[in-house]
């Protein structure tokens, strides 16, 4: 309900205005003051939408009161009513952007028309402010998305001079959430993104953060500073992961950044989070990762010995030298300082590893194998066993490097497949099957060769094709959404808006307008 302040030193005049307001059923909170001084007190006490004031009053006249009112509330609607048809008063009223200047005695029809116009002005201003705020929030999200994807901060400030970039300093930490499947693109209408965010808020009371949809597989939570909660960030991530799994029955891997000391650090922190999250390939029972947690979790070793041996075999099979080294190192680290395990078992395990390596990729003759087995059982210290196995590891790595496919050729095949099948569901597992590589290794060489991740490459391609279809065809936005591989229209529209800074319909309108003007 809007609030009107009626100011006149004659009570009868105020009663007439109140009567007319009731007669025409204007739903307003009515406040009265019998002079300018009292009216100013009311203005300072509470916000006023409409100021209906006489001009000639004791203490403070209507002109001075309206001036002070506009200083307090720049959008206040002012109506002067006076018994003096004085041009100088009217001129001053216009300079204060008054809505109207009504002469006493007030004519009911004129009063009704003026009040209707004033209320419509207020509603229009509110709508415009809401639109400006919505556009500003959209631009802020778009800026965050581009910043995280390595657009220099200074370039963004030059492109968006109207945006106050101070909001970037509100964030203390980032949480990267990654799903095994395109989660957001598969949310049914009754469980849209807003509902998903509500689930997170229920899991963490008083949790204060913003969200960025990076692609169908990833979102980032930006934690705000000074939010009142005693939970550690790792506890927050664990709660979120459990809530998502309980609600949607989907695995979500979460990576936690270091503290954000300055906005320009966000791209680097995002890269680190992606690196941390890769560990879920090696630690299948762990779902939350950070720089600190990665080193701690690596000592808990959720994988069994058989898991690690199988991972080593798979790495050799797929010629994945990165995974091979990492799993070998995991096995070494697990027993390097483990005083609770029998020396006999350690010798047995690593002799079994040596046999596995020789079986899957023949390196030595039978005599050399037996001699090496004897050496492993004769070692007095684990470091000696490790030295033997590292020597074998280096030989296998060299062989694998010689035999595996050229990365550039592999990436070309993957990119060609993406361009031919962008309308379909595309996952890292599916793409890795096309080139007979492990998902982790394909992801690594794709970034090395192209400078961006596979999910980002797919999203960029789909967005560019969608843009071309909007420009060159009359296809409906919903048809374009499905044509470029999205199932959820609202998610497609949001992704397009974050990518290009405008909705598909708005983008199409701007393109047509530019074409007409050229």
UniProtKB/TrEMBL annotation:
Keyword ATP-binding part of the UniProt annotation: no
Keyword terms: DNA-binding, Phosphoprotein, Transcription, Transcription regulation
Residue positions where 4-aspartylphosphate is found in the record: 54
KW Transcription regulation (keyword) present: yes
Protein name: Response regulator
Organism (species): Metabacillus rhizosphaerae
Residue intervals passing through the bilayer: none
Domain HTH araC/xylS-type: 412-510
Annotated ranges, domain Response regulatory: 3-119
Xref: InterPro entries: CheY-like_superfamily, Homeodomain-like_sf, HTH_AraC, HTH_AraC-typ_CS, Sig_transdc_resp-reg_receiver, Tscrpt_reg_AraC-type_HTH
């Amino acid at each position: 309900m809007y609030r009107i302040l009626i100011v006149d030193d004659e009570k009868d005049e105020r009663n007439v205005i109140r009567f007319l307001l009731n007669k025409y059923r204007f739903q307003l909170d009515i406040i009265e003051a019998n002079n300018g001084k009292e009216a100013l007190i009311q203005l300072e006490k509470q916000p006023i939408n409409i100021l209906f004031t006489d001009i000639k009053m004791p203490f403070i006249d209507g002109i001075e009161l309206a001036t002070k009112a506009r200083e307090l509330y720049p959008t206040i609607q002012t109506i002067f009513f006076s018994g003096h048809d004085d041009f100088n008063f009217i001129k001053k009223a216009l300079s204060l952007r008054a809505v109207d200047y009504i002469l006493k005695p007030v004519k009911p029809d004129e009063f009704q028309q003026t009040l209707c116009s004033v209320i419509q002005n207020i509603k229009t201003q509110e709508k415009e402010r809401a639109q400006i705020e919505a556009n500003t929030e959209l631009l802020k999200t778009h800026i965050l998305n581009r910043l995280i994807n390595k657009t220099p901060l200074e370039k963004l400030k030059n492109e968006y001079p109207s945006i106050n970039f101070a909001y970037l300093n509100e964030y203390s930490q980032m949480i990267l959430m990654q799903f095994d499947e395109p989660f957001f693109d598969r949310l049914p209408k009754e469980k849209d993104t807003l509902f998903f965010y509500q689930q997170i808020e229920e899991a963490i009371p008083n949790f204060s953060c913003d969200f960025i949809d990076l692609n169908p597989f990833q979102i980032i939570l930006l934690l705000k500073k000074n939010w009142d909660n005693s939970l550690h960030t790792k506890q927050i991530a664990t709660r979120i992961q459990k809530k998502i799994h309980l609600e949607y029955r989907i695995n979500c891997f979460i990576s936690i950044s270091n503290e954000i000391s300055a906005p320009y650090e966000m791209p680097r922190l995002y890269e680190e989070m992606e690196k941390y999250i890769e560990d879920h390939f090696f630690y299948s029972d762990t779902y939350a990762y950070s720089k600190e947690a990665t080193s701690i979790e690596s000592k808990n070793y959720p994988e069994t010995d058989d898991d690690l041996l199988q991972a080593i075999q798979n790495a050799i099979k797929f010629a994945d030298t990165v995974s091979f080294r990492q799993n070998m190192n995991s096995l070494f680290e697990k027993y390097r300082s483990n005083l609770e395990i029998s020396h006999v078992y350690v010798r047995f395990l690593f002799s079994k590893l040596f046999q596995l390596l020789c079986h899957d990729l023949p390196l030595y003759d039978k005599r050399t194998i037996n001699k090496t087995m004897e050496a492993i059982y004769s070692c007095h210290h684990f470091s000696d066993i490790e030295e033997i196995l590292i020597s074998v590891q280096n030989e296998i790595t060299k062989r694998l490097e010689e035999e595996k496919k050229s990365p550039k050729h592999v990436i070309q095949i993957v990119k060609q497949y993406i361009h031919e099948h962008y309308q379909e569901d595309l996952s890292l597992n599916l793409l890795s099957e096309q080139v007979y590589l492990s998902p982790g290794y394909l992801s690594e060489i794709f970034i090395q060769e192209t400078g961006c991740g596979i999910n980002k490459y797919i999203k960029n391609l789909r967005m560019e094709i969608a843009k071309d279809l909007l420009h060159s065809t009359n296809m409906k936005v919903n048809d374009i959404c499905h044509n470029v591989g999205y199932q959820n229209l609202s998610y497609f529209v949001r992704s397009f808006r974050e990518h290009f800074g405008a909705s598909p319909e708005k983008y199409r309108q701007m393109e047509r307008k530019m074409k007409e003007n050229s």
